[in-house]
Amino acid sequence: MPTEDITPVTIVGAGPVGLMLANLLCAYNVPVTLFERHLTTVKAPRAVSIDDESLRSLQIAGLADRVRDICAMDYGSIYLGPDRKPFASVSPSTAEYGHPRRSAFAQPELEALLADSLRQYPNLRIHFGQEVVGIEQGGTGVTLEIQAQDGSRHKHHSRYVAACDGGRSPIRHLLHIDMKGHTYEKKWLILDLKGTRDNFRETRVYCDPRRPGINLPGPNGTRRFEFMLLDGETDEQVTDAAFVSQLLRDHGPDDGIEIVRKQVYPFHALMATEWKKGAVFLLGDAAHLTPPFAGQGLNSGLRDASNLAWKLASVIHGQLGPAVLESYADERPEHAWELINMAIKLGRVMMPDTMLKACLIQAGFRALKWVPPANDYITQMRYKPKPRFSKGFIVADGANLRTTRVGRMLPQPEVEADGRSRHRLDEILGKGFALIAFHPDPPNAFNGLPELPFEARLGLRRTCITPRHYNIVPGTAGATTVRDMHADFERNCVGARESWLLVRPDRYVMACIPRSNPQAAVETLSRMLHA
What we know:
alpha/beta; FAD/NAD(P)-binding domain; Glutaredoxin; 8-stranded mixed beta sheet
């Protein structure tokens, strides 16, 4: 059986998560081989919702603006009772991480864009129509047995393997990794339409025990409906043309337009019992399956890619030791499970099984409107778990989880640079590690900071952010100075003046180095960041 030379990273699966990981690794100058068992990227609609964290990850790969061009940006949700009257709305107006909280896209367009972007990288090899049928691990890495569509086989050797091969993940099964959680008893009918006549651009959620459903607008005149099957209904019955036509007549003006896809699905709330086994990592649906009620399935997968990419790159380039890779399985499952739980709770609101429950849910939400903090919690989508880690490749500062900046995603405000040009903060920080001082006096912003033995090896980029009411003046040598234009950084990063913030390439705060006593934190970082 023919063999190949060893590849630093091999990705299995050219869905959005695998393509995202490939783009990030290539942007970090890591050679990548990608295998996909299908002959092309997907052609039918699947995932439809993308959030601010995902767009920020795409920004690292230089793709955020291209993706925004194919999205219907910044939309919310209206919750309707059995009488079709609204009782709650979710319409977040903040952009803490530099992008709208929720936008709509078409997965075929996203995958085509991500695949096209890879053409610019000479260190990327992509093979469609080739499937992994065997896997072995040894001291030098992983050996994959690859089968082409003509039945021929060859062996492929890789230092690390990322399994992005979907909910049925052959690699997960080959590694004998189980999934925990549950599958919903009720199935759902998914209808994707083209050429909608409905110009309402918010999602409608029908919280009606007679037929729970969701009506989601998309870009370029697309629309998705999701309807729960009732007791006794079969897949054949609900996909019948007359049945579908009646559903569409009951929920808007779109009966008779082109139906791109109609499919019955079970919904799952499942997570892999292991996210890393040897030199193999599970990402996306291979690691977790999320109910669609919060639109977080694909977004959780893109977070996986963002978390793992820089760690693999740092190890392959010799900046960090292999121990950093263990933190992938420490950091990602907790946050992913929080989002699964959020989706489960939203599902309870969307799927009341009696009229009494539906009426009680409506009454509760209407009462919240009289309590502004509670109302904001709903309308501003503050119920969504914050992107943060309680453990992993971080240096705890002793503060509690609610107040610490460590392990949390750094805000991304609009900043003003020298010459009055405007930027998102990440455009200033670059793709690697960054050290941030929030200080009104740039020449003295890094005074008192001990020598950082790891600074040159990590290519640490120093940045001084001045408060809104201070002009930009030249800072210390080797540091960039920008201004917090709208005070968003100060508002969302309380206490930043008291510390220097060491920020990881995925934009999470790895450590707060206190100005009052920096030495202990620097010593801890030096031990963690040794090559």
